[in-house]
Amino acid sequence: MAFFKKFKTTDPKNPISNAYNKLPTGEVVRRHYHFTGIVQGVGFRVEMWRRAMNMHLSGWVRNNFDGSVDAELEGALPRIEMLIQQMKEISRIRIETMDVSEMKAEGTQEFEMLNY
Fold it and tell me: Which of 5, 38, 74, 108 is the most buried (most CB within 10 A)?
């Protein structure tokens, strides 16, 4: 994880560090997502982690033993929706199903990439 830490949102060497600062803010929500399809072995977690950090979202993403991926995202709803849309547009990732459930916001500040 030390490699990824150098790309933290505030790192001036990160070319997109401020690209998402102009995104709309709004009501803070927390959602749980369950993704199936071609979502493991294609960089799904890394892409979600990197984009979530840059969008100032919190939560986590993790692989499941059945080949699916779970994620909890907390932050402004327009930013979460943009992240999900971006994940759908990555050509090497194929999301077949996506289940979403609303959760109570926890006020967390970090986004973590978890293992199983």
Answer: 74
25-51 pLDDT, tens per residue? 788 999 999 999 999 999 999 999 999
Q: Respond yes or no: is residue 18 known to be catalytic.
A: no
- Concatenating the DSSP letter of every residue in 61-92 gives EEE-TTS-EEEEEEEEHHHHHHHHHHHHH-TT
Q: Can 45 be counted among the known catalytic residues?
A: yes
pTM above threshold 0.85: no
Task: Name the helix (H) or strand (E) containing 38.
Answer: strand 28-38
Catalytic residue (one of 45, 50, 51, 79): 45
The catalytic position among 30, 51, 54, 63 is 63
* % of the chain with per-residue pLDDT over 70: 82
